[in-house]
Amino acid sequence: MIQFVLSALLGAILVMTAAAPARAQGFDRPGGDYTRFVVPSGDPAVCAARCDRDGRCRAWTFSYPGTGAVGGSNSAVCYLKNVVPARVENACCVSGVKGAGLVETRSGPVETAIDRYGGDYRSFELASDPSGESCKQACEGDNRCRAWTYARPGYGGPSARCYLKEKITRPRRKPCCMSGVVR
């Protein structure tokens, strides 16, 4: 009886541990793909919802535009998986498991999937930077700048773009962007 209880307890711990990495931002789950499709809106929540509705799906990976996921295209792509592969850190993607929805990290001063629309006094193209750090640094180095928004490549154009803002505007959820308030 004790072995049965210990075995059941160990099994529950393993299930909880496997389900724990529900965080999505910055991870790929390579392998197990049984279908893929372009996501015209570029919103990873569409991918998570599609997995939830599909009986075969166990996990999903959303590849941001501009990462060349499908033959080098600039489209956002969703990959549905019939297994739950181990996640691998990769800024190209967002991934999750069925039923967990889209869980985007909100660690530190960078606001993931947030656009602070308006208040721009300057914008410029910059090299793709999945962390948004180069845009944040540009804002920190300019005393006029109070907030910033980094738009990933493939959303507003083929290149990444940084928007420096002279006023702090209301945050709005948009998968295209990362933002932050500096001062």
How does this structure look, described?
The chain is of the alpha+beta class. The protein has two domains: about 20-95, Hepatocyte Growth Factor (3-Layer(bba) Sandwich); about 110-180, Hepatocyte Growth Factor, CATH 3.50.4. Helix content is about 20%, strand content about 35%. The protein has three helices and ten strands. The strands form two sheets. The chain has a five-stranded antiparallel beta sheet, with helices on one face. The longest helix has 18 residues, at about 1-20.
Please indicate the count of domains. Answer: 2
User: How large is the radius of gyration?
Assistant: 19 Å
CATH class of the largest domain: Alpha Beta
As for the CATH topology of the largest domain, it is Hepatocyte Growth Factor
Shape: elongated
Structural class comes to alpha+beta
The description of the largest β-sheet is: 5 strands, antiparallel
CATH architecture of the largest domain: 3-Layer(bba) Sandwich
Order of helices and strands: HEEHEEEEEHEEE
Residue share in helix: 10-25%
How many extended strands?
Answer: 10
Question: CATH-wise, what's the superfamily of the largest domain?
Answer: Hepatocyte Growth Factor
Give the low-confidence spans.
1-24
Strand content: 25-35%
Instruction: Please give the alpha-carbon distance between the first and last residues.
Output: 61 Å
Number of helices: 3
